[in-house]
């Protein structure tokens, strides 16, 4: 029997991309989102970068779906009139010690089929006159977009194709049988052939609600941003990133010129005291206890005590945050930046204390659970949707128009 009824929990960019793709293929789709708007959490708080994918292990889902997603996201933006800029990015080595890591990154970019080239420090300053660089990797296909606009467009397209779109509706219970899955929610229930969990920060809890033991635990990390003052935006033309340190769990602060011309600087990475906690003042006892009592987190924290302390200090000190940014753009001072909000990353941590470094999709009968989809998930959203639909083998009617 063809699986033609699908319920999706989560109205971020991945859930909406899956909904649009399935509804276009003729499925009867219901999307359940607990917030009153689409893209309310990770999608609506990210930096808006269309990534090219030089960081990811060749052959991984992140590498393959990001590379394809770069192309499909630009095309989707063009076809739907969504503002975007192909700005390019510089990944810079600020001293000679970072050059070997930069060149290894260039090799990885080549292995992933990405158009990227090493440039000298003087060539780097032709792109970014104020940058500190002894060498850099220029990635031309990186861009900027408004992912909230992408998400609302996907929601509109899905609804136009017959999807039932439920905002302000939280899933309360999930009942799975051999023949169907029923999601009980705030305003009733929906029975379907297949459940797809795209709940982001709550994805492991939705999996548990469906009777599954998730392979990883979601631990929330807040990334805080500053913004360059209007009179200092000329310090950055596009995107400036550091060379990532493979011994650290996160990328490090960087500069991003946004669609509106503002320049965001950050993020750092500190443990959030709530899964949807965008400031130190937002505390959820359950969320905090879930994180700090989880053996995987304790092992990760034990290996990164110094780094964790530095991140907390940078969160609390504008001077330290500015000093980190000045490694990349030495002219920048604390007077040149103002606070500009934060996002929360749903970081999946495995029981051994390692980070899930690839997209993690766990399946069970009549269930697909997207348990790890941090950056570059927004870039890859259309391709993640394609992957999920292919993996689910829904047996739907032939596609109407596939990208």
TrEMBL record:
Gene3D superfamilies: D-Amino Acid Oxidase, subunit A, domain 2, FAD/NAD(P)-binding domain. Its cofactor is FAD. The keyword RNA-binding does not apply. Transmembrane segments: none annotated. Residues 5-389 form the FAD dependent oxidoreductase domain. GO terms for cellular component: cytoplasm. GO terms for molecular function: (S)-2-hydroxyglutarate dehydrogenase activity. Keywords: FAD, Flavoprotein, Oxidoreductase. SUPFAM superfamilies: FAD/NAD(P)-binding domain (SSF51905). Belongs to the L2HGDH family. This is L-2-hydroxyglutarate oxidase. It comes from Cryobacterium melibiosiphilum. The lineage of its organism: Bacteria, Bacillati, Actinomycetota, Actinomycetes, Micrococcales.
């Amino acid at each position: 029997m063809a699986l033609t009824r699908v319920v999706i929990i989560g109205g971020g960019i991945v859930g909406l991309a899956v909904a649009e793709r399935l509804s276009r293929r003729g499925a009867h789709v219901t999307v359940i989102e607990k917030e009153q708007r689409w893209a309310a959490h990770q999608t609506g708080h990210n930096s808006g970068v269309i990534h090219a994918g030089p960081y990811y292990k060749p052959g991984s889902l992140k590498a393959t779906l990001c590379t394809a997603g770069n192309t499909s996201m630009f095309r989707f933006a063009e076809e739907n009139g969504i503002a975007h800029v192909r700005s390019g990015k510089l990944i810079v080595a600020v001293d000679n010690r970072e050059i070997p890591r930069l060149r290894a990154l260039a090799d990885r970019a080549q292995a992933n089929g990405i158009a990227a080239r090493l440039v000298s420090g003087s060539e780097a300053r032709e792109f970014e006159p104020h940058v500190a660089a002894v060498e850099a990797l220029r990635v031309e296909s990186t861009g900027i977009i408004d992912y909230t606009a992408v998400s609302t467009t996907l929601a509109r397209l899905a609804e136009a194709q017959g999807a039932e779109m439920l905002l302000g509706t939280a899933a309360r219970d999930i009942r799975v049988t051999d023949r169907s899955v029923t999601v009980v929610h705030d305003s009733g229930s929906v029975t379907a052939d297949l459940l797809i969990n795209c709940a982001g920060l709550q994805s492991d809890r939705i999996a548990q609600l469906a009777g599954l033991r998730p392979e990883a635990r979601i631990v929330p990390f807040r990334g805080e941003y500053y913004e360059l003052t209007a009179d200092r935006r000329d310090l950055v033309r596009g995107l400036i990133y550091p060379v990532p340190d493979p011994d650290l769990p996160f990328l490090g602060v960087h500069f991003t010129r946004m669609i509106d011309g503002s320049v965001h600087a950050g993020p750092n990475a500190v443990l959030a005291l709530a899964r949807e906690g965008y400031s130190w003042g937002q505390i959820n006892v359950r969320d905090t206890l879930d994180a700090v009592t989880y053996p995987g987190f304790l092992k990760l924290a034990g290996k990164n005590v110094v780094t964790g302390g530095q991140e907390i200090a940078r969160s609390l000190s504008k001077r330290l945050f500015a000093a980190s940014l000045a490694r990349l753009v030495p002219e920048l001072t604390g007077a040149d930046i103002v606070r500009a909000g934060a996002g929360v990353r749903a970081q999946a941590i495995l029981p051994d204390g390692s980070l899930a470094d690839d997209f993690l999709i766990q399946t069970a009968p009549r269930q697909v659970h997207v348990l790890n989809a941090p950056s570059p998930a927004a870039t890859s959203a259309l391709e993640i949707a394609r992957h999920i639909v292919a993996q689910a083998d829904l047996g739907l009617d032939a596609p109407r128009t596939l990208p």
